[in-house]
Amino acid sequence: MEDVVEKIRSGDVRTVARIIRDIDDGIPGVRETLKALYPYTGNAYVVGITGAPGVGKSTLVDQMINHLRKKGKTVGVLAVDPTSPFSGGAILGDRVRMQRHSMDEGVFIRSLATRGHFGGLTQSTRSAIDVLDAMGKDYILVETVGVGQDEVDVVRNTHTTVIVVIPGMGDDIQAIKAGILEVGDIFVINKAEREGADKTLSDLRLMLDMDQKKYQEGDWRPPIIKTEAIFDKGVNELLNAIEEHRKYLSKRYGIIHLRKNRDRVREELKEMVKSRLIEKVFQILVESGEFEKAVDQIVEGKIDPYSASDNLVLPKIVVPGAKDES
Amino acid sequence: MEDVVEKIRSGDVRTVARIIRDIDDGIPGVRETLKALYPYTGNAYVVGITGAPGVGKSTLVDQMINHLRKKGKTVGVLAVDPTSPFSGGAILGDRVRMQRHSMDEGVFIRSLATRGHFGGLTQSTRSAIDVLDAMGKDYILVETVGVGQDEVDVVRNTHTTVIVVIPGMGDDIQAIKAGILEVGDIFVINKAEREGADKTLSDLRLMLDMDQKKYQEGDWRPPIIKTEAIFDKGVNELLNAIEEHRKYLSKRYGIIHLRKNRDRVREELKEMVKSRLIEKVFQILVESGEFEKAVDQIVEGKIDPYSASDNLVLPKIVVPGAKDES
């Protein structure tokens, strides 16, 4: 174990790749590695980038890597792609990006596709962030495809959340408004060379201002930045905005560590307890044959699924102050 | 309890509405009602209808209700809309539809928005289906917004799954292909009066045929139906295709009862065990204060979240053959 930890900390790419694959595949043993790595986490700055398919997130991330590298920063990228639930593999569309940075030791790019494993995508992403963090990357960029609940959950677990839209998405902005406005720390209008960029900017500004009415003095007010990622325009501005947000967080919360935020820690612990609980109890129920027996009884019409789940679960839980009742 | 069951069975709209709201809100007591209703379920035919926003699902469902009513069938509709995770309320966009059928006792329409409650959207939907089933509705139409994993899970829990697309969605079909092709029993190209309907038809046909190479003789081959729901065109054809699929299922699996399919029962029981387990254990952890204490320790840097979750979970589980070890 110490050997694995040392290899990860020294940036051994093969070891890191294997651990992240184990996380993605839900291999139980990986928990022990994550425990051992934990003391070495908390140093990276984590940026979430989300938006609908086609807004140019990958190109933007590619340019961000470039700029960060020029500043001498090391970068880890997690491309989270759950759009292919049945095939089980992540599609990292932009292979060009991987090739371009593949010879650069300061950049590490991996994709995550986990669906259906206990704990889900949010937890897998968080664990993968821990690994890249322990690996010593200065910045970790978490790119998610789509704008569903899962993606929102993933980007919420970052320091700075960047929401990417393109001109003419007015209706879509409206549709995703409720979920998106609240999680965005910075908004980007990419492909800003297209017609309608100013209209999108003013629409978005209006919605944000309405949303901000409930804000207090001193709260962060999400800036909107126009970029043309493909022409490398506006990317530095975006990085400056991220730096501003970092300073804001640091000033407001003292220390930049995701696990210093009680709400975040509570959310994370809740999910970890859930996944651990399910994993352990299912192992018992499956090995004892109780689960399949209950399935039989439901199919045969002998019991309803609501009662069957009660019968399976309740005897497996230690109730405080009720010893020896079994 | 008997009174509630009788009221639901006799079609008392207020009681049914209340129970469905309780399901949506995750009120624990509703489980007992569901247990008592269970013997009266298994008679309805459940159709799932999904597709991207804007394809005209609501109009299609509205026309389906009309046609089914003309045939003397009673109809329950569940509009499942989790797109608004933060506001907590379901948006049922098409209020016209509700108005049109609001005076018809043979139609019952409700929306579900559950997010974040233990068990999630799939289980809430299934429980709501149970209620409409026990209420005596002949057909239950489950309409979901979006094409994410949650929506796929919801429509999989039906007898017949209808996937709705519109002309010119070629790229989108490609994008959602992996998840969608496998769950669709019937495909509908709505707004077929638009340009490109034949191209979409042939694209879809091609993809389905490629997918069907692995099919065995006698397997169901999903038909593709062109509809113009707004002009009431093709809707009868769709209902005929649903009827064909129903006959196929009946011939192949004998009896039309969702809880006679082992795979479905297994999936359902797994989810119910999960939600029951989490509900019970969290209650204990929160009431005892153990959970908040662990959050404190993580924030203070005294323990990692991986170990903390182990410490919370493992002592709560009754391990077989390990009595008195606590």
Give the SSE layout:
2 copies of one chain form a homodimer.
Chain A: H1 2-9, H2 13-25, H3 30-37, E1 45-50, H4 57-70, E2 75-80, H5 95-101, E3 107-112, H6 120-134, E4 139-144, H7 149-156, E5 160-165, H8 170-183, E6 186-189, H9 197-212, E7 224-226, H10 235-253, H11 262-287, H12 290-299, H13 305-313
Parallel strand pairs in A: 1-4, 1-5, 2-3, 2-4, 5-6, 6-7
What is the mean predicted local confidence, pLDDT of chain A?
Answer: 84
Oligomerization state of this entry?
homodimer
Largest sheet of chain A: 7 strands, parallel
Helix count from the secondary structure assignment of chain A: 13
**Strand line-up of the largest beta sheet of chain A:** 3-2-4-1-5-6-7
Integer tally of domains of chain A:
2
CATH topology of the largest domain in chain A: Rossmann fold
The count of β-strands of chain A is: 7
What CATH architecture of the largest domain in chain A would you give? 3-Layer(aba) Sandwich
What structural class is derived from the secondary structure elements of chain A? alpha/beta
